[in-house]
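User: Hi! I have a protein structure encoded as tokens and I'd like to know what sequence might fold into it. I'm fairly new to this, so please keep things simple.
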């Protein structure tokens, strides 16, 4: 009966109904219009089919990316925190880590591309994570005294700060690629974790947004270096500014004690 009603609707009314009811009505629209000869009707069918196909793809990705969390939840670990960091390789700025505890298998569109998203889509996802997460913690280690040799220690410190910043104590830690010394919780390092765990990928998004916003603030304070554009990484423009003006207080120093301008020796990563 409903299919007959949909068949008799004008395309304008169908478009309004689709906008009003969302994807739940898409299969019925496809069934009602699949034999409709009107080009507008077939366009609606294709739009609905494309959306449903993409939604199924995303659900399959999420199913895979929750495999670590699902196993731990089944073992009784309620608050599983994913950890990731950014900023180990730049010439300037802090190392920033984030810890995120998700409430379950929530949908986070685009999370499988956490480190390749555009700035706009990353910010949308960042806001979504803030809305659905049980807890979010951030750890930031400033570049004062930070050099090529101590960046690993700084990464550990940032992770510890992120864990301690969580308003909820985690039961288990999923960490992107490293084993974190000094924590009491059980943990597992997940190499390439931002593509294998939604919790780690969510932490990657949070850490990236927090660090980028910090570097934009530093751009206003030290405008000669272009921090808002390159976020402290070793672009040609950044290296040229370093040659011209020398380092500023947020540039890292080399490990051999030579003048801070030798931060040029850092490689991006």
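Assistant: Happy to help. Inverse folding works backwards from shape to sequence: for each of the 269 positions I chose a residue that suits the local structure. Here it is:
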């Amino acid at each position: 009966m409903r299919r007959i009603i949909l068949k008799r609707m004008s395309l304008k009314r169908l478009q309004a109904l689709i906008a009003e009811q969302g994807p739940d009505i898409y299969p019925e629209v496809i069934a009602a219009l699949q034999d409709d000869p009107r080009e507008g009707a077939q366009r609606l069918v294709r739009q609905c089919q494309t959306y449903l196909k993409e939604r199924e793809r995303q659900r399959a990705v999420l199913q895979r990316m929750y495999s670590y969390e699902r196993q731990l939840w089944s073992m009784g670990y309620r608050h599983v925190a994913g950890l990731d960091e950014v900023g180990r390789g730049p010439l300037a700025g802090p190392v920033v880590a984030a810890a995120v505890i998700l409430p379950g298998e929530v949908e986070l569109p685009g999370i499988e591309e956490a480190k390749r998203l555009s700035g706009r889509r990353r910010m949308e996802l960042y806001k979504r994570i803030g809305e659905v997460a049980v807890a979010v913690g951030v750890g930031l280690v400033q570049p004062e005294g930070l050099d090529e040799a101590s960046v690993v220690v700084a990464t550990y410190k940032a992770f510890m700060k992120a864990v301690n910043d969580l308003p909820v104590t985690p039961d288990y830690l999923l960490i992107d690629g490293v084993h974190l010394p000094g924590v009491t919780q059980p943990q597992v390092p997940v190499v390439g974790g931002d593509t294998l765990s939604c919790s780690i990928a969510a932490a990657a998004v949070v850490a990236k947004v927090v660090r980028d916003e910090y570097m934009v603030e530093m751009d206003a304070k030290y405008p000669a270096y272009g921090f808002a554009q390159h976020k402290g990484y070793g672009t040609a423009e950044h290296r040229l500014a370093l040659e011209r003006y020398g380092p500023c207080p947020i540039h890292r120093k080399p490990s051999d004690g030579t003048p801070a301008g030798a931060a040029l020796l850092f490689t991006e990563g």
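A useful reference point when you look it over: The beta strands are 80-86, 95-101, 135-141, 172-176, 187-190. Feel free to ask if any position seems puzzling.
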